[in-house]
Amino acid sequence: MFSSKEEFKKFFMNRIADKRSQKSLEMAFETLWEMTHEWIQENWNRTNQLYEKEPEKQLYYFSIEFLIGRVLGQNLVNLNFYDVVKEGLDELGLKLSEIEELEDEPGLGNGGLGRLAACFMDSLASLALPGHGYGLRYKGGLFTQHFVNGNQTEQPTKWIKEKNNADARQKDLAVEVAYYGDVQLVVGTAGVKRTIENPVWVKAVPYDLPIVGANGGTINTLRLWQAEVSERPFPSTKDHTVYEHETAKITDRLYPDDSLESGKILRLKQQYLLCSASLQDLLRNPSFPVEEIPENIAIQINDTHPALAIPELMRILIDDHSLGWEQAWDITTRTISYTNHTILTEAMEKWDCHLIQSLLPRIYLIIEEIDLRFKESLQNQGKTVDVLRKLSIIEEGVIKMAVLAVVGSYKVNGVAKLHTNILKKREMKELNEQFPNKFHNKTNGITHRRWLIKANPELSELITETIGARWVKEPERLDELHSFAQNPSFLQDFQAVKKLKKEQLIYHLQRDQNIVVDSASIFDIHIKRFHGYKRQLMNILHIQMLYNRIKHDSTYRPYPRTFFFGGKAAPTYHFAKQVIKMINTIASKVNNDPLVREHLHIVFVENYNVTQAEYLIPAAEVSEQISTASKEASGTGNMKLMMNGALTIGTFDGANVEMFEQVGEENAFVFGMRAEEIMQYEKEKSYNPKEIIEGDPEIAKMMRQLATGKFTDGKINADFIVEQLLEDKDPYFVLKDIHSYAKAHEKILKAYDNPMKWAEMSVKNMAASGIFSSDRTIQQYSDDVWHLSKVPSIH
Ligand code: 26Q
């Protein structure tokens, strides 16, 4: 390793020379990649040795998604090498930022849930806590999005290359996972045992990725499983070619749906591969008796997707370790804890019994018995039929995974205060009453090392110049910025950084997507997956409203705004795709209108992903967090934008509520109905969007413009949108909230009129954002759920 720029240059040049090649960018990338990996390897080995020598309790985070983003630059940041490497390369005539761009990000997640898992990994290692990830090594990550005639198209992606992958194959650690087969009772000397006869075996091969904590001290492991053909005996009744094909499919690609798609056998195979392989791995040669699993291992399941870990752990304990049911259940329910990420009923996982019965016959029997015993205990407590039905794991031939996850865990959490309260009071009311101490809140967080230090080094430097460097380790110290919120010279510096980040974004967009943006306009940013409840439709309808005002009121000439959109729709989510098409269509109308384009500009960034987010977020001035109240469990993009000084226009939903609480409502643009009102309307089914349209000429006109195809020149299926708003009774209350949304936007324009005041509000947002670092979240999980101790320092 090196400690100075000069040393780095020597090291680097030696390597390049070793390869007898010119300083091409690719070669530089390869060299830097290999050097970084060697530095990491050293500390990785040391961390692992420490875990072996002093086996403290370890946490394993089971998740079907880990949306880690690019790793090279982030590893350099966490190793504290970034600046030295950057300066050294500069002097060699190479740009580190250009080298970084050669890395394809592994898109092993859809959105919030997968990115949360990645932030958590970073915080665990950075807090020197023994916590690791288990996931799947999808060959294809989330699809690449392109627009063709304004429509989303999906191209498969491949992030795995011939060499220099982020992860390394551990072929000696492969395990075998059993699918199908028949459950047999075997009577032996030790009693009755159950085995699975004639299963179809699939080999799970692990690939390990180092998770580099801050200062490079602790390096934990993210272990990803890849499905491969097993060499074990194969049932004679089945076709081997078909088997090879089906096996390869298991980890071939990530499911691109983040709420709707369900009940697919392939998805079930993925979930079981993750759970079975990871648990076998953990219990391979434990340094402790299985009775002491809960003292040595904590398993957190990221939503219900890995909930099969519950019956699988039971299976291993009972069938492989010959434990009795009660003891196995006691161990399991003291080891596993569960995080819920949604209250949308369509996103609650359910599996047909017959599907699990045929693919995982032993697992099915165990789930059935868990359900039976639970119901028995409830009956003994004299529960009513209605309560019994709500609490049953199996109901009408389907398995409700959320109920299984709650019953089989010792702790259950929601991801923001509001969300946890809704879970406790409504969605999981009966479960909460049954297990009063199980439910708790852990408000999400984001790692400031990626979303501030890495994505916005200029702002980070300004912060450090202003309040010193302690905030890097203790992000809550960002609140020391409060004393500078009215300091003119600091505010000017802040404005200069924001301008620079806007210009960098413009440069990036112009280069990659040939988009030209006015840097003086207000950057209003709406980035997230496309979903009805996230209400991108309300944003674009509001833009239509502004268009009409500009066209028909010659006194209305608002300050220029650029509305950025970014996000993907699940390929089968028709409505979301129609909204994408609508935004693109209105974008070309607005952007090509000589009058309107002086005031409004729409930019739809193609293929929004972690890398794009790192460009967009530091440049944002307005953050759109406009979900229908009660629907967004937490949101995490909201926190990233706040930390970079964007002002939030948002509803009282998810973690927005806590953001407003921290920063004060006067430093945000809050609008719309509250969760209780929405839920009241839903209960009474009393909302009628027709009444709104009839009583409101402006909205009525917009609906007419859409329905007749006039506004969008017949280019979109406007009937469909209008239908959603009228026939389907506007399930996300777009028309109900749109006026209050428009008023909040007017307030934004007024505030922006006073640049110093705007900067002051921005700084107050940054200052109040420290609590949303995932370091805080992880410390709370550790204190309340996992009970981990810090890894001793290895420096
Ligand atoms: C389920 C069944 C079949 C196929 C796919 C799925 C599936 C996949 C992904 C269901 C849900 C997801 C992802 C959900 C998600 O990202 N939820 C978000 O989690 C964030 C982190 O807690 C929250 O901040 C967001 O509010 C929440 O929407």
TrEMBL record:
Pfam families: Phosphorylase (PF00343). Its cofactor is pyridoxal 5'-phosphate. Transmembrane segments: none annotated. One of its GO terms (molecular function) is pyridoxal phosphate binding. One of its GO terms (biological process) is glycogen catabolic process. One of its GO terms (cellular component) is cytoplasm. The modification N6-(pyridoxal phosphate)lysine is found at residue 640. This is Alpha-1,4 glucan phosphorylase. It comes from Planococcus versutus.
